Amino acid sequence: MHPLYTVAEIRDIEQRAAQRLPAGALMQRAGQAGANAALDLLPFSTSRARVLVLAGPGNNGGDALETAAHLAHAGAQVTLLHFDPASEPAPERVAALSRARNSAVHFTELTREQIAAADWNLIIDGLFGIGLRRPLRDAMAALVNTVNGLACPILALDVPSGLDADTGSVVGPEGAAIRATHTVTYIGDKPGLHTCDGRDYAGLVQVNDLDLDDSLFPPSRAHLNDVKLFSRHIRSRRHNSHKGSFGNVAVLGGATGMMGAPVLAGRTALMTGTGRVYLCFAGGALPYDSAQPELMCRAARDFDFDSAVTIAGPGLGSSADARELLALAVRSTQPLVLDADALNLMAEDAMLTADVARRSANTVLTPHPLEAARLLGSSVAEVQSHRLAAARTLAARCNATVLLKGSGTVLASASGEAVINNTGNPGLATAGTGDVLAGLCGSLLAQGWPGWEAALAAVWLHGMAADVLVTEGTGPIGLTASELVPAIRVALNRMVEHHGR
Length: 501
Fold this sequence. Notes:
Blueprint: E1 2-3, H1 7-20, H2 25-41, E2 50-55, H3 59-73, E3 77-82, H4 91-101, E4 106-108, H5 112-117, E5 122-126, H6 138-148, E6 154-157, E7 182-186, H7 198-202, E8 204-208, E9 222-224, E10 248-253, H8 260-271, E11 276-281, E12 296-299, E13 309-312, H9 320-330, E14 336-338, H10 341-347, H11 350-357, E15 363-365, H12 369-376, H13 380-385, H14 387-398, E16 401-404, E17 410-412, E18 418-420, H15 433-446, H16 451-471, H17 481-499
């Protein structure tokens, strides 16, 4: 598994490691790790490489100083922009500065215009590390924006300066942050590198544990998603099986004018292995789906929700009838996926939310940030700036697995466990992909997966299918939800081929 650690946890590991190691060893190891990562990014002879290193006033700047010295010793042409500490620096930083000054590193006071005009092969960001709490403004923000405009790789040391390592938000509503192409992060991985703004600003992330002993690392309550987290539930199909072996799914939705959403969810459930799929329309029921006639269309009021896993919400609407139908689904004894309008109805009805929390069967909520904000009585900005906390709070409140969609989708269990998904791309930012995700999650539940693992697998497969489509030339611009469905089927079958039991 790939653990994620908060800043507080990293600080604690760092302090305990420092007690075991010689003075300055951690900074020296960080500098060597930074230099190794930098050398991997230089495309030709090191002696011809022009590298600009930004060394801030704190210990992250010390890491940058050590990195600069190593690169100079390796023969690179290293220019260093150094920012003096405002207070007494740590002894290890003083030692790092001395090593850099005694190397071939060229200390300079380049203007932003000079930085922009030079031909750099690599920029190394060591301005601010994981402890930054104030937004970057004025001259520092201007420097960051200049660097972000350069057409060369940018390597961030530990975390891109200006990015909150816990939340993935750029620090401050009007703050700035380095938009790195690569990040080498120290000791342990951080959640903020993988969610919210993190994936845009951190680029490709590699973790260097600085050779610390495993005993220093506590158990983590947050991880990156991985097939290993749900692989024990992947099953190959027996020859001796029938449609009843793979469950029933009912999609509750489709008010007048919104029939496409349940069709997308239902097609996904069918094409990912559910034995029987019913489309239960809140408005007038379609006679059939001409593109997928295997789907069975019903009037929602005539359906027994105890007979199927229900995906409630796609195109359901907000009418009183919709609320009554949702209450029927919530009272069922079967697993339930709540999406879209079902979540909005819950946000308007505390009793309905309480009924959801009292359910004994698996319940999965799949909100986007606005839906989560409505459920939590907060704003989208508050949800996005604390995505893990928001997902955990909602999961505990609703006694459910929560899948908070967005860049770096966050999954949280009622017990507080959290996982950040690392598949997917901007092609998913289009109408209908959420209906596809809900359909996939319901399909896995109907086939006997537990709620937590079904959500993990669904979001991983959903993102992986989008990634494969983009690799093959379909998207990200113009990728549609309908195109995802057959790609998910392929990804699911390949996963079963490699991991099925």
